Amino acid sequence: MSTQVKKPATAEIDRETRLRLYQLMVELRDFEQRAYELFLENLVRGTSHLALGQEAISAGYAVAMRPDDYTFCTYRGHGHTLARGASMAGAFAELMGRGNGMLHGKGGSMHLTDVKHGAMGSYAIVGAHLPIAAGAAWSAQVRKSGQVAVCFFGDGTTNIGAFHEALNLAVVWKLPVVFVCENNGYMEYTPIESVTAVKHPAADRAAAYGLEPILVDGNDADIMYETAQTTIAKARSGAGPSLVEALTYRHGGHSRADPGKYRPDAELREWLAKDPIKRYRERLVANRVPEAELAGIETRAQEKVDEATEEARNGAPARVDAIERQVWSDGSARWRN
Which end of the chain, N or C, is surrounded by fewer C-beta atoms within 10 Å? Predict the structure, then answer.
């Protein structure tokens, strides 16, 4: 089987959209870098998984989505949550276990959720959220709301049963859902190709469910935006789901405790040269966007991160007596009695 990487469409993306894509990618990159710095200060509670290098995927889809669409993502979900409009200060505070966090300090890095902005949760159990995304899409279908669920997951998820179960029902019921595999080459520390029967773990399996193989450059924001527009429009029109495999690379290890030394030096250099932000900045300059305008976007992004960091730092630690709140529908554990 030979699956080819799709080329971008010929339609031109307008200047305003491109600047929004760049702004979002820069903000997500600066957030992740600051999150790592806060970890080094021993301020981040629990573990965290950064998506440095994968910003084009979250930005491309977020810009193409409607405000009431749904996003489901993995524990590597800071970017996907923020891209939908969630509070950056609330995210920092959540990482630090502060009461002013978006989940009042109880969720931490791996469970960021902001329902008001369509960010329906980050899921730590690999593959668990694919059937949930299909369920949200089914709800939208029944309610005829026109909403679309977009579900992001890693390459390792493609070898989990929930991946195949969710895909099968989504196709059978023609659900308005888009499944996006962020293939960064590694399932934790193991190269995905070493444990998978096909070269492209998502795209090469699409045909088994009657879907078109969609393999794209996940480090190209234009390609990701165009792919998002096409697949979301298909879902919203009632034509059913899509399965996208976006090729990308995380700049760091799997989690904060992983130095990533198992990756070949040549491979790392090759992918760092494909940095999505560096590539996109060069493209914007080539398209006559003034350097000063881009520098302004970068400065404002850094200022936003700085302000959000201070707001988060000033929050009080999460209160132990609030641990039972927002767990059950009545806000308590009275159901036990």
Answer: C
